[in-house]
Structures are given as C-alpha cells and as structure tokens.
Amino acid sequence: MSEKQLGNGQQLILSEELYLKISKLVEKLTTSTGAEYIVFCEVNGYPVTHFGDIKEVDLPTISSLAAGNFSATAQMASMLGENDSFKYLFHEGEEQNLYISNVGFNFLLIVVFRVEVALGMVRIYTKKAIASLGEILENANQEEKESKEFLDLEFKTLLSEELSRSLKL
Amino acid sequence: MFINHALQEINLKIVYYGPGLSGKTSNLEFIYKHLDPKIRSELITLNTKEERTLYFDFMQLELGQIQGKKPKFNLYTVPGQVYYRFSRKVILKGVDGVVFVADSQKSRMGENLDSLLDLEKNLIETGCTLQDFPWVIQYNKRDLPEIETIEKLQSRLNFFGAPFYKGVATKGHEVLSTLQGVIEQVIQKIVI
Ligand SMILES: Nc1nc2c(ncn2[C@@H]2O[C@H](COP(=O)(O)OP(=O)(O)OP(=O)(O)O)[C@@H](O)[C@H]2O)c(=O)[nH]1
Ligand SMILES: [Mg+2]
Questions:
Q1: A151:B13 CB<8 A
Q2: A149 found inside a domain
Q3: What is the CATH number of the domain that holds B135?
C-alpha cells in the first residue's frame, strides 16, 4: 500500500502485517501517554485498531464524528489558503481532552486523555508515534491485492441472502 | 472502500443525497428503529434547532460473517438545504454508493433536479460520474396528494436508468428494499 490520497470509488487495503505493526504502536502510545484510549481510524471514519478503555459500540460513532470534524476543519484550512490541513485538533473538556491528528493522507489518530495528563507530553509522544506510523505506511511494500480476490460472485449472492434475512424483507 | 485484512472487515460508505426535506433522515430513522440493535450502531444526528440536518446523520450497519468476512456499511445523510453545499462535498468524500431521495411532490421537481445536478457535479470533482456509479433513486412521499407520476419522475430524473423505489419513508415503505438495492449495486460494481 502506498501513501497517496484516494478518490471516490477507490479502494484502500490494509495488510495483516501492517495492521499488527500499527496495533502495537497504538498500544505502546496508549501506555506511554497514560491516555484513556486511542483509536486509529481511516480518514472516512472506519475504525482500524484501538487500545484502552473504550466501549466497542462507541467505536464507529466516535470515528465517524472525528472524521467529520477533521474533514470540516481541513475544508476551512483550504479556504484560508493553507496548503495542508491544520496539524491537529484539540478539544479541552472538564475531565477529558480530545486530540485528533491525521496520519498521512488516509488515516487519523484519536487520543482521549484525562485533564491531569499534560498536553505537552501527549503531543510529544503522539508526534513521535505519528512519524513512526507514517514511516510504516510509507515503506509498506506495494503488494496491493485486488479487492476482486477478496470479494467474488459467490460473496455477492451470500450477501444478498444475508441482507434479506437481516432486513427481514 | 476500506479493507482490513487482519480483521477480515470490508467497510463501505453509502450516502443518502437529495433536496431539503425529501426524507433522507426519515430513511435512516426507520432503518434504525427496524433493525436488530445487535447489527447496527447508535444513530448520530447533527441537527439545527429546527430538526433539519446541519452536517450529517450517521449509522453503521454490520452484517454477520459471509465467507468469514465482515461487511460493514456506514450510512450517511447529507443536509439537503442549498446553503450547506460545502458540507455535502465533505460527506461525499470516499463514497461507494448513493441513494438519491427525491421528493415526489409536483412542486419539488425543480429542487430534485438541482440536487441531482449538484450531486453529479460533486462526484465529477472526485473523478466519478453518475453514469457508472452505483446508485439508486427513491421517489419518496408517495402518500401525499399532489404528487408527480412515476413515469414523469423517471423521465425527468432517472436519465441513466438506475434502479428506483416508491417510498413512504415515514412509514417505512420501500426503505429497506432501497437500502438492499444500493448495497447490491455497490457490491456488483466491486465483483465485476
Ligand atoms: N407524508 C410524508 N412525509 C414525509 C415522508 N418522508 C419524510 N416526511 C416528512 O418530511 C419532513 C422532512 O423529513 P426529513 O427526513 O427530515 O428530510 P431530510 O431530507 O432529512 O431534510 P434535510 O435534513 O433538511 O435535508 C419531516 O417532517 C418528515 O416527517 C413521507 O414519505 N411522507
Ligand atoms: Mg436530514
């Protein structure tokens, strides 16, 4: 997988090897910052991997809201004539803080930490982690498998049946 | 589309598009109420004070395993009001399939067309076009009195022959078949 921005209808495939490397880094970052939890998600809001104290049910909603927030801000940045989006978003709460940063073009890192944890420290560790994640994504070998190998006609038939069942049509 | 090989997950994005008040949010609300909570997330709605969509609605649908793979569908609505065109652009990013929810009322033909052209324009900016993109049309509000005939709607709006549905979103008519229809269009495009 190469690090380039994807357009509509294009596919991004994350290999198992990459997933494991990223998961390890996310775990390490959570422990070293003492964050409540960290979510690594795709830029359209699909959760990829996470660590720490987050409920499974909150993953898709947190990720989609963070993605919506980030892309709205990116749009503002471009209106202001910034070449890149803002480097990160930071929201300060009474008990918890939220830090969102992009990782390359295609991913986001969401860090939730308690107010007792110093923002400066979170930023330093996170910045380092983002650099490492960026390197991992950049150097990933280009064995880009076609999604057709992943999904075939039989899958389509089975999916239709499953849909009819789940939607109770 | 995003595939996570390690977890065998396939993530797809489906966007409900259409003019203001056509019933996009009502579609998602019905899906949310009707589905088993085990296979859907919470419904997120970012509304104005007047209950109009301000940024987007969101809900995830997660089907059971198929050939060991886990398909997940992220459903979004856009705000239909003309004023929010930049938000629509942002929501369309990374879209894999579209449900165009048209308002069947005679008085809304112009708004339907404008919204469809707005959709086409936004898609073209991302390198796609409706002609070869997975999408379906739902002619909604079929329960109201002053509505256009399906033939007229078809000839004015459905210029690429997309699958179409006759909906009453508030009562759930054709809401689920519309959803199934768009998902099948999306998968069709991928496997062929
Ligand atoms: N009679 C009737 N009313 C409907 C139907 N679908 C939606 N409505 C009503 O139309 C109004 C607008 O519906 P929404 O679902 O909020 O419309 P929307 O497309 O999300 O509107 P925006 O968020 O502004 O773009 C609500 O009052 C709904 O109850 C329908 O099929 N029949
Ligand atoms: Mg709405």
A1: no
A2: yes
A3: 3.40.50.300
Task: Output the CA–CA distances (angstroms, integers) from residue A95 to A29, A36, A114, A121, in the order listed.
Answer: 20, 11, 6, 17
The per-residue pLDDT string of chain B (192 residues; one tens digit each, 9 = 90 and over) reads 999 999 999 999 999 999 999 999 999 999 999 999 999 999 999 999 889 999 999 999 999 899 999 999 999 999 999 999 999 999 999 999 999 999 999 999 999 999 999 999 999 998 899 999 999 999 999 999 999 999 999 999 999 999 999 999 999 999 999 999 999 999 998 887
Q: Mutual orientation of helices B24-34 and B175-191 as an angle, nearest 10°?
A: 90
Does a structural domain hold residue A148?
A: yes
Q: Does the C-beta of B82 come closer than 6 Å to ligand 1? A: no
| Distance to chain A for B144, nearest Cα, Å | 24
| B106–chain A nearest CA distance, Å | 30
User: Do residues B2 and A14 make contact, with C-beta atoms less than 8 angstroms apart?
Assistant: yes
| Distance between CA atoms of residues A111 and A90, nearest Å | 10
Q: Is residue A169 part of a domain?
A: no
Q: Could you tell me the residue range of the domain that residue B34 belongs to?
A: 2-189
CATH of the domain at A80: 3.30.450.30
User: Tokens for A92?
Assistant: 């300060």
All residues at 6 or more sequence positions from B159 whose CB lies less than 8 Å from its CB, including other chains? none
* A85, part of any domain: yes
Domain count, chain B: 1
Q: Which residues of A touch B184 (CB under 8 A)?
A: 156, 159-160, 163
**Which residues of B fall within a CB distance of 8 Å from A60?**
41, 58, 60, 72, 74
pLDDT on residue A79: 86
Q: What is the extent of the structural domain holding A64?
A: 2-163
